[in-house]
Write a structure and sequence with these properties.
This protein has one domain: Flavodoxin domain (Rossmann fold, 3-Layer(aba) Sandwich). The chain has 6 helices and 7 strands; from the N terminus they run E-H-E-H-H-E-H-E-H-E-E-E-H. By secondary structure, it is α/β, with parallel strands linked by helices. Strands 2-1-3-4-5 form a 5-stranded parallel sheet, sandwiched between helices. The longest helix is centred in the C-terminal third of the chain and has 22 residues.
């Protein structure tokens, strides 16, 4: 069983002016260099998920769940808004249940405190969804990894954490795969 795992890099913001696509692309390019899994960017904005329970149109939710079911693990690009994860990410987490179960996830967060508070909140929700979140995290600071708090320009020091995070996500995703089969 040497089939490559499918890992989704989930962009956790849908707002105008967001930088999560830049952070996600940076992470994706680093992951692709490893050639050890199939990595893809999964943009929440593309799914146009309605707020949970506020629409009878289930097509976006069904598409979201189908995408998650294809994936063996995740890396969340989580930005911190008001000491928490974005509302769009929380809604996306709540809009699925079974497709999350018995998979692994890593967190790349950013904000004034590296997005640490959003990541901690995300970890709590992932536990309830039976997602094994890995210990290593990539924390990006608005003060040192962004020019003028807006243009993403990461420091090279993050490379080691990116590699360790991916090693852990792949190990856990592989270990949990028999529970999903």
């Amino acid at each position: 069983m040497n089939e490559k795992l499918n890992i989704g890099i989930i962009l956790g913001s849908t707002r105008e002016g967001r930088v999560s696509p830049d952070v996600g692309q940076w992470f994706y390019e680093l992951a692709q260099k490893r050639n050890d899994a199939n990595y893809e960017i999964v943009d929440l904005k593309a799914y146009k998920l309605p707020l949970l329970g506020e629409s009878s149109d289930m097509e976006p939710v069904e598409k979201w769940n189908a995408k998650l079911a294809e994936l063996d693990g995740f890396v969340f690009i989580a930005q911190e808004y008001n000491h928490a994860m974005s509302g769009a990410l929380k809604n996306a987490l709540d809009s699925a249940r079974d497709p999350w179960n018995n998979k692994a996830a890593g967190i790349v967060s950013y904000g004034s405190a590296g997005g640490a508070r959003a990541a901690e909140q995300l970890r709590n929700v992932l536990g309830e969804l039976q997602v094994a979140d890995v210990r290593t995290q990539v924390l990006l600071s608005l003060f040192t990894d962004f020019e003028n708090f807006a243009k993403f320009n990461p420091q090279d020091i993050h490379q080691e954490n990116v590699d360790t995070l991916l090693d852990q996500v792949l190990a856990w995703s592989k270990a949990l795969k028999p529970l999903r089969d």
